[in-house]
C-alpha cells in the first residue's frame, strides 16, 4: 500500500486541510477531491472532511492506492526496468515499439507490457505515461504509478526533468559543442504528414549538443533538451546539415537499411527529483546493440 504521509509543522494560523494539501504538498484539486470522496485522507488515523482545520503535529496520511480500470489488454513482455519505487517505474524502451495503444496498434505496445507487469506483481496501478518516445526511438520512459506522482512529474516535466539523448549523425560537426536555438513549425498540407521544419512561425525550441566521439563517417552526439518539441533533435540536427543515420523523414532513411533500420536516436539519460522524497534520480541506459553496431560500421 502506498501512503503519502506528512507531519504538520510551522502552521501559524487556522487553515483547512484542503488548502494545506494544495499549498504545502502541491497536490492537485482533482487528486484531493478523489481521495476525499473515497475516504483515503486521514488525520491522526481518523478520516476527515476537507474543511478540517489542521494544527501543528497533526499526522496527515493519504492512501494513493485506488481501484481503477484501463482499456488496455495486458501482455506478457520482457521489460528492461531501470528503476522502480512506490511512485514510478522507469523502463528502457526497445526500438520499433509503440508506447501506447492506438487505433492501428492495439497490442504489442509498451503499455500492454507494463499493465501485465503491474498485474503480475499485484500492483493496483494503471499506466500513466509521464514521457513518451517515437516508435523507432529507444530509451528511458517514466511511468507514474499513481495520480500523485503523475501530477507532480508532469508539472515539472518542462523545467525540472533533464532529458539526455545520444544520436549518431552524418558528417562531423564543425563546432564540437553548442546550442541550437531555432523555432520548429508544423507546416500545413497533407504532403508534409508529420514532418516539422525550422521556421520563424514555429515554437521556440532549444537543443544543447556536445560531440562525444568523431568517426570517419559521422559523430556520436549527446543532446540535452531545454524544450520538448515533436521531432526536435531530428529537425535541429538535420537543419545543421547533419541528419541522424536511419532517419527516413529528415535524413536518407531507407537508403541506409544496411547500416541501421531506424533513426539512430536513444534517450539514454533522465535526471529528476523523486516526487515523494525530493531525492535526485540520475538514470542511464546503455546504447542499444544496433547503434553500437552502426558505430563499428562508420569508424
Automatic annotation (TrEMBL):
Top-level lineage group: Bacteria
UniProt keywords, alphabetically: Isomerase, RNA-binding
Transmembrane segments: none
Gene3D superfamilies: Pseudouridine synthase (3.30.2350.10)
EC number(s) reported in the record: 5.4.99.-
InterPro entries, A to Z: PsdUridine_synth_cat_dom_sf, PsdUridine_synth_RluC/D, PsdUridine_synth_RsuA/RluA, RluA_PseudoU_synthase
Top enzyme category: isomerase
Keyword RNA-binding part of the UniProt annotation: yes
Stored PROSITE patterns: S4 (PS50889)
Residue ranges annotated for the Pseudouridine synthase RsuA/RluA-like domain, each copy included: 87-239
Catalytic activity: a uridine in RNA = a pseudouridine in RNA
Similarity comment: Belongs to the pseudouridine synthase RluA family.
Described purpose of this protein according to its UniProt entry: Responsible for synthesis of pseudouridine from uracil.
Protein name (Swiss-Prot/TrEMBL): Pseudouridine synthase
